[in-house]
Amino acid sequence: MQALKDASNQIRTYFNFISHKQSFILCCLILVSLIFVVLAITLGSYGLSIFEFIKGNTTAIQNTVLIEIRLPRVILSALVGASLGISGAALQGLFRNPLADPGLIGVSAGAALGATLIIVLGGDLFDQYSLGIYLIPLAAVAGASLVIFMLYLMTRGFGYEGVTYMLLVGIAINAIAGVGIGILTYISTDAELRSLTFWTMGSFGGVTWPLLTPVIVMILISIMIMVPFSRQLDLLQLGEQEAYRLGIDVQRLKYTIIITCAAAVGASVALSGMIGFVGLVVPHLTRLIGGVNHNFVLPGSAIMGAAIMIIADLIARIIVQPAELPIGLITSAIGSPFFLWLIFRIKRL
Amino acid sequence: MSIKTESVSLSFGNKSILKDITLEVKPKEILSIIGPNGAGKTTLLNMITGNLSDHSGEVYYDSRSLNTISIQERAYIRSVMSQFQNIAFDYSVMDIIQMGWLDHKFNMISSDLENYQNDVIEECDLQSLVDQKFNTLSGGEQRRVHFARTLLQLWQPPNANDQNYLLLDEPFSNLDMVHKLSMMRSIKKRATAGTGILMILHDLNLAYSFSDRIIILKKGSIVKEGDVQEMLNEDLLSKAYETNIMIDQDPINIRYY
User: Which of A53, A179, B18, B235 is deepest in the core (most CB within 10 A)?
Assistant: First the structure.
């Protein structure tokens, strides 16, 4: 307990405007996610014990399963959860709109469309260059940035009143991306089709270290760039005009959030497909337990997103062993009722 | 030392919003801008704060052109309170007040700043509200919270004594009489301490009873500028508002109607 208190004091020195309670919650969240990481590595259709591994009592095949399959998968799910959580929180702050979610407003769909384009039309590039595997994440990021930027242009000047408008634009963008993906599915070959289907459902399976490494770097850098802008996001809630009067370069803030969110969402969509509702549910849960200031909500959403995603993936893996459920099914099953609840809550405001 | 605009004009398309405005906000002085709806008062304020920059003419803060001053530094020089919109998330009243703490103050969050903050909260009569959610407050209460935030933005470390300015757009709307008076007192106090003050007011009564100088703005141009006695002119006001305005003096409270 004392150690937890010390750690939370440590956090307070890094983040201004975060209360004792909030830093304590952050520490607890980190602790919980670490426990989940250990659980997720241990449990699965192939029984493993992380303690045996540390002691060195494992066979070669167990080592392979752990290091080449289990570990990258857990890391990916944590990172995707973190990036969707923090992007959801940052976009909600940027749009001053509690219903912004990378999935709902079409950012993930834009990323998926970008990735699909490369898979189907850029198939040749893969074989020619060793850097080909990085093209998919890059295309996904480009697709995501395009969508966020379009959304910002279309909803500017609406502020808090633009809630419905933005969702409608999101539906339209989702539909357009759906059409694009549909056409690409139609003209794709069998092998390409197999890699396409997983974008609609989302999955953490089949990830390898060479694919994972650039995504780790991208997501971590995005998060590290985003968090220092927390205070500016708080001030932005007063409106762009007021934020400017309080000394904030609003243009710079907007572009930073748009690009980092696009990078984080694009990178995670490129490896795991479209996973809905995490970006919506996680920031609200974080606000519910600790408060609304972004100094807490951004890091809190990242950590909570990671924890929730590890658990969701664990459920997906063990509930119908040895097969697995699509992860998107689980997050949507939890997220969509929550979304309804939110809509009714906002209506009452 | 002053905030100055020099023959500033602004037009959207063919429509001219502001024409050749030259004015000066001086330290220790309360300058009020009055005028009918649509005269361009708020646009003028937005230009002075730097929110609007595509105008001709120049705006100067303490003889430095506004364009040469960084966005952050502008916030140290002038503090602005305007009309507000809803806030999407449930910030507490204290959160909103503390949004007036500027970045450079993070390193020196001193007992002095905290004392000042407590004084401001008391001054705005917000002691009982600080822990509540901002969105649950009434319009007048929200106004007072924003006023407290604006005052907090004016804070300076004890040894610093830079000139600063307070720009207010309709500060008294939605306020009851008691709080109107106490806010007036707060503004007067800042002026006495050296802050230059610019206010946009609809209430002629308030403008005349408590400004040092008055500008009448009509259709984007300055009709007349002068001290209160000079501006207390039935013809002038009637022309500006295109209706008959009678000036009468309440013998007891010395109020003008």
Answer: B18
Domain holding A203, by residue range, is 2-6+20-348
In angstroms, how far is the first alpha carbon of chain B from the final one? 34
Task: Supply the range of the domain harboring residue B124.
Answer: 3-256
| Among candidate residues A309, A291, A336, the one with its CA nearest the CA of residue A89 | A291
Which DSSP string do the residues of B70-127 spell out, in sequence order? Answer: -HHHHHHHEEEE------SS--BHHHHHHTTS-GGGGGG--HHHHHHHHHHHHHTT-T
- Report the distance separating Cα A244 and Cα A170, nearest Å: 28
ipTM of the complex: 0.89
Residues of chain B contacting A92 with CB distance shorter than 8 Å: 88
Nearest CA in chain A to B153: A246
Instruction: Tally the domains of chain A.
Output: 1
pLDDT tens for each residue of B19-34: 999 999 999 999 999 9
Distance from C-alpha of A23 to C-alpha of A19, rounded to nearest angstrom: 6
A12: in domain: no
- Partner residue opposite A241 with nearest CB, options B51, B73, B89: B51
Pairwise CA distance, residues A269 & A289, whole Å: 28
Tell me if B53 sits within 8 A of B42, measured CB to CB: no
For residue A304, what is the domain's CATH number? Answer: 1.10.3470.10
Total tally of structural domains belonging to chain B: 1
User: Global pTM?
Assistant: 0.86
**Residues within 8 A of B (CB atoms), A 81-100 only:** 92, 96-98
Tell me the shortest Cα–Cα distance from A235 to chain B, in angstroms: 6
CATH of residue B202: 3.40.50.300
Distance CA(B76)–CA(B165), nearest Å, equals 9
Give the model confidence (pLDDT) of A5-32 as tens digits: 666 665 555 556 678 888 899 999 999 9
Residue A56 lies in a domain: yes
**Are the CB atoms for B70 and B19 separated by under 8 Å?**
no
